[in-house]
Amino acid sequence: LLPQKSMVTEPITLTVANQKGDHGLVSAIADAAAKAAAPGRTLLVVVNRVGVARAVKEDLRGGTGARRDGPRPDLVLLTGRSRPVERDALLASCRDRLLAGRTRSRDGQGPGLIVVATQCIEVGADIDADAMVTECCPVDALRQRLGRLDRLGELGSAEASVVCRADQAWNGEGEPASDPVYGQALARTWRWLESESRLSPLDGGVEAFAARLPGQPALQALSTSGARAPVLFPAYCDLWVQTGPEPAESPDPALFLHGPRTGEPEVGLVWRADLDLDRVDLWADTVALCPPVSGEVLPLRLSVARHWLEQAKDQVVSADIEGEPLPDEAEAVSEFRPVLRWRGPEASTVATSSTSLRPGDVLVVPSGYGGCDRHGWAPDSTELVDDLADRARRLARRAPVLRLHPSLVGGWPEEFASLRVFSTQDAAEWPDDFEGRVSRALDAVEDPGDATLRALQADASRRVEPHPTGQGVVVIGRAGRADSGTDFTDEDTSSSRGPRAVSLLAHLQAVSARARAHAATAGLDRELQDDLALAGLLHDLGKADPRFQAWLAGGDRLRAARAGLLAKSLRV
């Protein structure tokens, strides 16, 4: 496939926005996208900042249909500032028109697709576009973005357009403009692109583009500055592979994955609908009954979260790259909205000032704060944010939790009316046998479409707790009983010790079946499906080592022999 991709031609068009600032940039990118959009075509629009990405999407949503004849294209926004559950749902909704290996529309029929994205698509995403519009960026980032264009070389020729802000279109005189994300490398890259285009038309194809790159140190001046990589010693690997019990001392893997942290740290935001704004003292107890999982967490720079909670008028510029520079200190704002710093049931506290927030915090806020929609971070939005706890826990295979609370059951279908009634009853009016009444009502629901309800109906060890707000109840199941037919796996479930023992054969067969199913869904041929299924069947065969089996049995080799080969032992 790579030789085929290397033969692709990618003509590059250069455009300078006719107005300075973000407004001119957004308008220029939207105009270029409107010209490149076409029925049956997947167009990828890549920009450097989350705010610009959202502005471009809104401009296209309001103007693309008016600019062009034919069916209005579908619009998708992808940023790293989104909750994994919603991001995966967005990708799944356009998988057949976005990912590599798909069957392309040869007749140009059907609505087109415009994907507006940030740097999050530069690596790790198997996106394959038919055409591209990108904001100017350093040459190394530009090559990554062009790699998402006709990824498998099926079209043979694919067009790309590079748009530059008017105030960054450096002509070689004076000092190049400094971009808040990429510094002066962006302006230098634009100057280089312009000078090369005067010699001959630009081609973004793999071999053609590489042939025109300058040598060092000129290439370094056009590239994103990188951090020095730390030395990885074998002893570090020996410590990392010992996951339970964890070694007393172990190097932080983040340093080796991301390099030295020179930029700003992040926090995670979680939205919950059942937090009572008038009773912040109950927030920790409320969240403790349904703890957050990673699928509902939106990562955000610490300064951005602080400004948003302070309700500052000017939001901090945010991109989707690691090591962003620290922002200038802003004036303190007294109107800070309270937020729960989740650190477990016993250690969680309510923060009432921005100085209380720390790097790595998981911050839980009421859905009424706004700030997010299905496309991700939207700081200016005041709409209620969807509470994703139930869905995220189910996808993460965590214990099912059903919160019967007025803020969560309003949209339930009529057949769940017998359960909905428990959400509005005051705790002071509960009879002594309220747990039994809730359980009987839960069991009485026939053929529930909700996976959480189904899991709780099958769980004889479930328990019922009054909701801390005094209204409604919470039904909590046993860990491991939630539905598991998904791809999303929370990190806490990957340990070699789990809520129940799993035989090695069952584990290998399950992974093999999952690998074959994914390969079939991706449209791979039967031979590749067989290869991936075999790889899944053999991937964990090393666990049959007697030493590992003895470790699962607490060091008892005889007990390990009686239990048979295991992939996971019972967590005790």
Strand content: 5-15%
State the secondary-structure class.
alpha/beta
Helix proportion range: 25-40%
Q: Mean of the pLDDT scores?
A: 84
**Can you tell me the overall shape?**
globular
Largest sheet: 6 strands, parallel
Strand order of the largest sheet: 1-6-5-2-4-3
Total number of helices = 21
Low-confidence stretches: 480-495
Distance from N terminus to C terminus (CA atoms, Å) equals 49 Å
What does this 3D model show about the protein?
There is one protein chain. With about 575 residues, the protein is of the alpha/beta class. The protein contains 21 helices and 19 strands. It has a six-stranded parallel β-sheet with strand order 1-6-5-2-4-3, with helices on both faces. A five-stranded mixed β-sheet has the order 8-7-11-9-10. Strand 5, helix 6 (about 140-145) and strand 6 (about 160-165) form a beta-alpha-beta unit. Helix 18 (about 505-520) runs antiparallel to helix 19 and helix 20 (about 545-550) crosses helix 21 (about 555-565). The longest helix is centred in the N-terminal third of the chain and has 18 residues, at about 50-65. The radius of gyration is 27 Å and the shape is globular. About 35% of the residues are buried.
Secondary structure elements and their pairing?
Blueprint: H1 2-6, E1 12-16, H2 21-36, E2 42-46, H3 50-67, E3 74-78, H4 84-93, H5 95-98, E4 113-117, E5 131-135, H6 139-146, E6 160-164, H7 185-199, H8 206-211, H9 218-221, H10 234-240, H11 253-258, E7 266-272, H12 283-288, E8 298-301, H13 302-309, E9 339-342, E10 349-351, E11 362-366, E12 372-373, E13 376-377, H14 389-395, E14 401-404, H15 417-420, H16 434-444, H17 451-457, E15 463-466, E16 473-476, E17 497-498, E18 502-503, H18 504-521, H19 526-538, H20 546-552, H21 557-563, E19 566-570
Parallel strand pairs: 1-6, 2-4, 2-5, 3-4, 5-6, 7-11, 17-19
Antiparallel strand pairs: 7-8, 9-10, 9-11, 12-13, 14-16, 15-16, 18-19
Helix pairs in contact: 2-3, 18-19, 20-21
